[in-house]
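User: Hey, quick favor. My workstation is busy. Could you predict this chain's structure for me?
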Amino acid sequence: MPSSRHPTSWSASTDLVRENEIRRGEIAVDAPAPTDAGLVFIGTILTPWASRLMAPRQGRADGPVCRIEIFPLWQEALAGIEQFERLEVLYWLHLSRRDLVRQSPANDGSARGTFALRSPVRPNPIGTSIVTLVGVEGSTLLVRGLDCLDGTPLLDLKPDRALFTPIAPPQPGDFEVG
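Assistant: No problem, here it is.
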């Protein structure tokens, strides 16, 4: 059921994506046990969405303001971030299944390979969004454009590469073409 803070324009139906289902045309594998890639979470993302069924499929530039709370150890790493209008946010899709190699987003029996989709269901569930930086409040960033669930672990933040000019001196590879 939609809550008072969510639009009521959707209705439950058999076509609605259900969490952790295997739809017609999809293929799951016996995925290997995860190994430690040495990642550390640097914060937590707070959004209005508690369920994948309510979250947008892609972030919107005019979407709700969400909060990215950076853990105290990493607060100094935010120095200078306010200079950038857009940021790339990388996060761990902690509630996503990891075993589908073919998926049927339209639930119509036709399927595509996981790597040909932006689905949160992936072998390594890393999500990424380009967000608009709305403000900085201490160790909290206010942003628009996210599509992840409330409480999603934060992996990294970077200035949007389209807006970033390297600060370090050039190196030979910077000039290589075709």
